[in-house]
Amino acid sequence: MKEALMGIYTLWLRDVIRFLRDKPRIVSSAAQPLLWLFVLGLGLSTAFVRGGSSQYLRFIYPGIISMSVLFTSIFSAVSIIWDREFGFLKEVLVAPIPRWSVAVGRALGGSTVAVMQGTIILLVAPLIGVKFGLVQLFFAFIIMFMIAFSMTSFGILIATRMRTHEGFQVVVNFLLLPMFFLSGAMFPTGKGLPVWMQVLVRIDPLSYGVDALRQTLVGLKVFPIWLDLGIVFCFGTVALALGVWYFERTE
Amino acid sequence: MRELKKSYNDIAAVKGVSFTIDRGEIFGFLGPNGAGKTTTISMLCTLLIPTGGRATVNGFDVVKNKLAVRKSIGLVFQDPSLDERLTALENLIFHAMIYGIGKADRDRRIPDVLELVELSGRQNDLVKTFSGGMKRRLEIARGLLHRPKVLFLDEPTLGLDPQTRYHIWEYVQQLIEDEGLTIFLTTHYMDEAENCDRIAIIDDGELIAMNTPEELKESIGGEVVLIVAEDNRKASLEIKDKFNIAVQEVNGELSLKVANGSHFMPELIKALETTVISISLRKPTLEDVFLDLTGRRIRDEKVEGMDQARVRMRARRGRTR
């Protein structure tokens, strides 16, 4: 057990050090969500005259935070594939630590990095007129971490099933973008949508994460909070368990 | 290890290999690429699960007691396995952490191994700025950090320049003196194999010979005469006919083993009707041993090309990262 904890801690630390060192990556991964928020968000808000522009920005703000968390999570989880290609994975696999601790360490490391990236977006709240107290901030962190953890675990699951990085673009196009679009990050997922889309929205685990964050930060909701958190938690746990299961069987 | 086997979808990569290595020995695994060297090492290091047979390392079973085996071994892989975005020191610290070395011990040990591989001055540099030789040295330092009982070196000098290769061998010799460890290495460089106490020659997943380099060479008997004739085929038939000696043709040269080469050569030239273009004599090498056992050379042109491709790929990877 001592070995497992040390393994988890070491792999977590590695992710955090690598993240903090790579300043260009921090800036560029923060740039994209900010672009969505301020350029696309402001642009689209002129189309929705009814609510007024600040209303639309407030609406997508939690969605953009989730987007930032989602992408950072999946990208850091998929870096397992890079570790495989560059050989570092071997060093970890022959170390006297259980395999599952490697997967858990990476899941926690990736989540931490994703939360840090999400925090950058959280910092621009005053610019779009979103105000919240310390309690809300505290819950926002917990929810961000839950989204990050479940998405990193999901990413690890994908990574264990992929042999090369070439398949990664496929994952982005067929999984990440649809997950993001259907999550209700950019538009309300209520009655106006066609039925097939409403169904997909309910299948998308990220919808519940976005909803939880939106309830906490701007007070708009679709689902009850317990359902949101329950689904995010269950999805993450199942994904991690499956990821560990496959990872244990890697040769 | 006994009758160790590994198959991939019914294709046997290692077909029942058995041997024992003594403590403090340098044991060399010699064979062409694809012979099953890396597969065998991977099984001994618990990276691959054998499909048959059993093996113990430092007294621990490689299937039942993986973690204990992993603690007793140090590994230097054929391909680099460092985290290039971390510094040399960070790579070592992480290694120490996952091998359960306490901080006090770690702080004493890391400067030692860095000094051993002459990288003390570069410890705070990112590994991606290192040359191939430096990376390999850092990997050796890392492999030794947790005081393993057995050090596995999988093609430790592949793609390195001769000077670096020589240096790495110096370290290895010194390590055996200083740390008293056992070394298991794979190679397809003959001169490297010469440095081993014992060599196992592996080809096509099977162990075909195992002995000291001296005895392996002596087993051939006598000396090797190399001939290039105007018509190699005709010459070869003639030699077989007149002297009753087996002749092997490799890369346009005829090679034959004789008891006393300096007496044999004049006789041969006199007897042959085919014109001889060149003739030379040498002591048998391990290459001859391999040729004698398999009828092939360990490294032919194709293999050489593959090595280069691999080295190029490494260089490319280093850049894209």
From TrEMBL, chain A:
Its main location: membrane. Residues 24-250 form the ABC transmembrane type-2 domain. PANTHER family: NODULATION PROTEIN J (PTHR43229). It is a multi-pass membrane protein. It comes from Candidatus Aquicultor secundus. It is found in: Cell membrane; Membrane. Keywords: Cell membrane, Membrane, Transmembrane, Transmembrane helix, Transport. This is Transport permease protein.
